[in-house]
Design brief:
Elements (H helix, E strand, L loop, with lengths): L2 H12 L17 E6 L3 H9 L1 H4 L13 H17 L1 E2 L2 H5 L11 E2 L1 H14 L7 E7 L5 E9 L2 E5 L7 E2 L6 E7 L2 E9 L3 H4 L5
Parallel strand pairs: 2-3
Antiparallel strand pairs: 1-9, 4-5, 4-8, 5-6, 6-7, 8-9
Helix pairs in contact: 1-4, 4-6
Length: 202
């Protein structure tokens, strides 16, 4: 089975077509930004090593319009990266606790997010709509995912599953994400669902 066939099969099995998604949810469809935040150490070090990517700023063009075409492109990239990169910790790969890098065959959660962001930019998405977010899993472990801002809400591309969900449908507690104007700038997220989706402390 070719990669293209696998991607089509995955989309069909998951039933993730724009026509079949209701997008009607009680929780907010978009994240609430409440101020500036310090970047994660891995993001800070990534910017030191890749200044050309982090020195540039870009205009907020507004959320991307979610059409059948853009939705399928989002699903395709999420599945493609998830199925070609093998999960491995930074400690196992680099011998350090935290390192952000573009993966080739293995990677940590933030590496998946970096590659998905890169591929979607190449597909025509604006950088202002592709924001890496730092979250807490229900067990308290840290995690990173890619947020795609759309006119239907903020959707999450996660290396732990191929299904693309609204941020408010995921089991995570959202702490911070990249600014819409700069790869190097970060914003705090007010996650009003935190008492519902998890019991982790501050």
């Amino acid at each position: 089975m070719t990669t293209k066939t696998k991607i089509k099969s995955c989309i069909a099995v998951l039933g993730l077509t724009l026509a079949s998604a209701s997008f009607a949810h009680a929780a907010p469809a978009t994240m609430n930004v409440i101020g500036r935040a310090n970047p994660p150490i891995g993001a800070y070090e990534f910017c030191k090593e890749n200044p050309s990517e982090c020195d540039q700023t870009y205009a907020d063009v507004g959320p991307v319009t979610l059409t059948e075409t853009t939705w399928k492109q989002i699903l395709k990239v999420n599945y493609q990266v998830n199925s070609t990169i093998t999960p491995m910790t930074d400690q196992d790969i680099y011998g350090v606790e935290e390192k952000w890098a573009y993966p080739t065959d293995v990677g940590d959660c933030e590496d998946y997010a970096l590659l998905k962001r890169k591929l979607l930019i190449q597909a025509g998405f604006s950088p202002s709509d592709l924001l890496i977010a730092v979250v807490l899993q229900p067990n308290g472990d840290g995690h990173a995912v890619l947020t795609v801002r759309t006119d239907r809400g903020d959707f999450i591309l996660d290396n732990m599953q191929n299904k693309v969900l609204l941020w408010s449908e995921t089991p995570y507690r959202y702490l911070k994400r990249q600014s819409v104007n700069s790869f190097a700038s970060w914003d705090k997220i007010q996650d009003g669902r935190a008492p519902v989706v998890g019991s982790v402390g501050q």
